[in-house]
Design brief:
The chain has about 500 residues and is α/β, with parallel strands linked by helices. The chain is about 35% helix and about 20% strand.
């Protein structure tokens, strides 16, 4: 059985109980949560039905990036306290970045929590739950370094047709606003052969889209001694039969080299999409952030990408109100936004991250000033996003049909899908059946700032192996759905030591 085929029933003989994983934060946390779910199901738990009042085991996979992350966690834990008191045997576990950071504090503030585990020992979750049950006391275990690469653990993937593939963990940067390196550790790269083996196993299961994942994904290779390892990996993905779409997130401008741009342009299944975090358009602020590029370097990357891949949709992250940001600095950010013409920007008002250098910097910006700048930035980006989307009207696009991305699809008799550049397109439901993972060719007829419409009849429908996989997963009786698999990896545990660097990784 595939790793995506999982039981959601609660009446199977031998089941320990139900579980729920609540995820906060980045894509790496989403990926880790899939691993937590896989571990729990291998241990005999089943996923709690949607709408259930409370599961037997509730796991919080936390994020420590935002200033109010702890308030959000303790608010959620507080709501569960009376439910746990009324249900003997119910267990609560807290993992992720906030657990790595706060450790014993969590149990002191919420003594009804049973397990606290960190970012480096996700694989211990079932053991810690059992130990807490047997000893009738909280178990707090925080590893200081990675015990097993996340992708060596079983998984419960949320999608039958698309999957995350982690290629590295940790980060070697020292951005003054970010606490991630302290919580995830230094970058550790996975061996190329293991990555490709996992991708090939996923494709065998029916997956046709993968997203390569890392805190600083295009720095891949620094740990194995090959500066071109990431571009070689992209090209190797292009040689995997049945893999139709390859994406990656999130790169860093410092490590975005010409060989990566060439690999993107020359590898047909690498999608014309790039998420390139800007953070600020002011070179002075970038220096204060300890971002190792400046405005000119960033815009030069955008120019090169557009020259090599004219149809590329580029998105970004921007922080408004970093300590010491002046009106002139903010004007530089607006300038870069106008020049880069991002398809989308994820904009954030700066908030203090406890434990980061920026939290102690002079020149903290008043909330009302940050809010006003933020609103100007959002208005500008909204205008640009709409203008860029209008350029898509009249284009014929092949969409991968998505599951659950169109909230109004039932009311409008539409379906939703993702274009190669990852734009969301709502399209008229074809006369023939289509499934998530299938491919539909449409003509774009209307553009809004955050989505496109294709209101005419579909030009073509292509049933795919991914659609077959989705159909199998949803049609299989719950009792027949199996446990997780190791996705082509030889064993669970820490991989053997890497060989001495030889200047290449054999990816071509």
């Amino acid at each position: 059985m595939s790793s995506s085929d999982r039981s959601q029933a609660v009446d199977v003989q031998g089941v320990k109980g139900t579980y729920e994983v609540r995820t906060f934060g980045c894509q790496m946390n989403v990926h880790d949560s899939e691993r937590m779910a896989g571990l729990l199901e291998d241990a005999g738990y089943v996923r709690a039905p949607q709408g259930a009042d409370a599961a037997d085991v509730i796991v919080f996979n936390t994020c420590a990036v935002r200033e109010n992350a702890d308030n959000r966690l303790y608010g959620n834990l507080g709501q569960l306290a009376p439910k746990k008191a009324a249900r003997p045997g119910m267990q609560i576990a807290v993992g992720g970045c906030l657990a790595q950071k706060d450790r014993d504090t969590i149990v002191k503030k919420a003594p009804w929590v049973d397990v606290v585990f960190g970012t480096h020992n996700v694989g211990k979750l079932p053991v810690l739950l059992e130990r807490a049950r047997l000893r009738d006391e909280a178990q707090v275990e925080i590893a200081e370094s990675l015990e097993a690469f996340p992708s060596t653990l079983p998984t419960r993937r949320e999608s039958a047709y698309a999957a995350w593939v982690s290629i590295s963990v940790g980060c070697n940067n020292t951005c003054t606003f970010c606490i991630v390196p302290q919580l995830r550790g230094k970058e550790k790269d996975r061996r190329p052969g293991d990555i490709l083996a996992e991708i090939e196993a996923l494709v065998d299961e029916g997956v046709t889209e993968i997203t390569l994942l890392g805190q600083n994904v295009n720095a891949y290779g620094s740990d194995i001694g090959d500066r071109e390892a990431f571009s070689k990996l992209l090209r190797a993905c292009g040689r995997i039969d049945g893999l139709e779409r390859v994406r990656f997130t999130s790169p860093h401008p410092r490590d975005f080299t010409d060989d990566v741009i060439a690999a993107m342009a020359e590898t047909p299944n690498v999608m014309p999409q790039l998420h390139m975090p800007l953070q600020s358009g002011s070179s002075r602020v970038l220096k204060a952030m300890r971002r190792s590029y400046r405005q000119e370097r960033f815009l030069n990357i955008i120019e090169k990408v557009r020259a090599a891949i004219p149809e590329a949709a580029i998105s970004t992250d921007i922080i408004v109100g970093f300590p010491g940001e002046t009106e002139e600095d903010f004007a530089e950010t607006l300038h870069v936004v106008r020049e880069a013409r991002f398809a989308q920007a994820f904009t954030f008002q700066y908030s203090k991250r406890p434990g980061t250098p920026a939290a102690e910097m002079d020149g903290q910006i008043p909330k009302e000033v940050v809010q006003e700048r933020y609103e100007r930035l959002v208005a500008l980006q909204e205008e640009i996003s709409w203008e860029e989307n209008k350029k898509q009207v009249g284009r014929t696009l092949e969409l991968m049909v998505a599951e659950g991305e169109g909230r109004k699809d039932d009311a409008t008799q539409r379906l939703s899908g993702r274009a190669p550049d990852n734009r969301l397109v709502h399209f008229t439901r074809p006369g023939e059946p289509v499934r998530p993972g299938d491919m539909v060719t449409v003509e774009v007829t209307y553009a809004a700032p955050h989505h496109l419409l294709a209101e005419g009849p579909a030009k073509a429908v292509r049933r795919t192996r991914a659609g077959d996989a989705w159909e199998r997963r949803n049609a299989a009786p719950a009792a027949e759905q199996g446990k997780g698999v190791l996705l082509g990896l030889p064993k669970v545990g820490v991989p053997e030591p890497l060989p001495a660097p030889t200047g290449g990784c054999g990816l071509g």
